[in-house]
Amino acid sequence: MTGSNPTGDGAISLPAEIINAVRWAEHVVVLTGAGVSAESGVPTFRDAQTGLWATYKPEDLASVAAYRATPKLVWDWYAWRRELVTQAQPNAAHLALTAMQDIYTNFTLITQNVDGLHQRAGSHDVLELHGNLFRYKCLLCDQPATVDEWRHRSDVPACIHCGGAVRPDIVWFGEMLPSRPLAAAQFATRHCDLFLAIGTSSVVFPAAGLPLLAMEKGALVIEINPSETDLSDSAQFSIHDKAGAVLPALVHAKRNPN
Asked: How far is CA 144 from CA 83, 135, 148, 164, 246, in A?
């Protein structure tokens, strides 16, 4: 394990082993969590339960049962979260990952975040394990729904196909992760030689199992997180610093091999 050290000019000094791994990797897989978006000012799921929302438990606001029982309450909470995200901008970490996408022939970006900031930064083909705040689907028929397609009513939008309540297309408590992005994430992880776990607490499975799978298959795993996590003792390297500081340094190392 290692921690990063700022040099006199404010740059990040990284161990030679990490620099060499970044330079010579052929297939890079990245998993991002809430810590990356937090650097843009987006509160984590639990941090968002402040102010008017502080009295509610997570399951009161993020489950099918909650939406059926109190649809307006749940809809308003996600509308508030969407507004927070709309005001946020991609940060240096998001932009560095977009750069990595362009400089590696094989690059896979997996995220647990639902804010779409990776895409706004220019990343494409992002594997969203927990969905997206700005996508919607019907609670009853599961059909995708867009703002232009749903019918407006007094409490929550209604599906034009069956009249059911439109919900955010994100993974709620008790729900399975979407099978296609999860399968694609696992496939890429099995075949990578460098895996970066960035800004994730490494406690929520099955996402938390991806870096372990990468190590099992022989990949080098580097964790980037300001704090210790459940992965810190297992990863070959654990850099305790912000992603917005470390990732640009990795991009620089890749682009400047000399």
From this structure: 21, 8, 12, 12, 37
The single residue of 130, 152, 161, 191 carrying the catalytic annotation is 130
Residue pLDDT, tens place only, 174-198? 999 999 999 999 999 999 999 999 9
Q: How far is CA 9 from CA 13, 101, 226, in A?
A: 10, 27, 20
Q: Which DSSP state fits 53?
A: G
- 55 Cβ contact list (under 8 Å, min separation 6): none
Q: pLDDT digit string (tens) for 50-98?
A: 554 465 777 788 999 999 999 999 999 899 889 999 999 999 999 999 9
CATH of 1-42+90-130+177-258 among 3.50.50.60, 3.90.1300.10, 3.40.50.720, 3.40.50.1220: 3.40.50.1220
Q: Is 182 exposed, middle or buried (0-12, 13-18, 19+ CB in 10 A)?
A: middle
Top-confidence residue, 12 or 124:
124
Q: Is residue 130 annotated as a catalytic residue, yes or no?
A: yes
Virtual CA dihedral for 176, 73, 54, 202, nearest 10 degrees? 10
Q: Write down the pLDDT at residue 5.
A: 46
Contact 60, 66 (CB under 8 A): yes
> Any idea which architecture 56-87+135-170 has in CATH?
2-Layer Sandwich (3.30)
Ordered by start, the domain boundaries in the chain are 1-42+90-130+177-258, 56-87+135-170
